[in-house]
Amino acid sequence: MILNNCSGVSIMQQDAFDQNQKAFTTYPSIECNEEITITLDSVKVNILCRDSMKKPTAGRADTNNEIWVIGRKMNDKVVLNQFILGHELQHLLNWKDGRIANPDGEN
Length: 107
Ligand SMILES: [Zn+2]
Hints:
Layout: H1 11-25, E1 44-48, E2 59-62, E3 66-74, E4 77-80, H2 82-96
Parallel strand pairs: 1-3
Antiparallel strand pairs: 2-3, 3-4
Bound molecules: zinc ion.
Residues 87, 91, 103-104 line the site of zinc ion.
């Protein structure tokens, strides 16, 4: 098993990561000591290494636990837009457990 605490993002991503985290911490929140565990069955992630998604769609997900995101090749590795991947994963979590907010802001 590999466990990663995600403390070392690349310098290129640091600004975006910091801005996103700053925005997240400004969300109004009531005190929450709850831990939620959600198990998703057979999540399939499709990575399209081209800008072929219809604009303005940057990613999509469906209720069969399938996600599509755009990747970019960099130094022989495919890099994903982590914000979009997280957004699409949150859709799967929302569909599985209604305690998780719809990332599009709807119920
Ligand atoms: Zn969405």
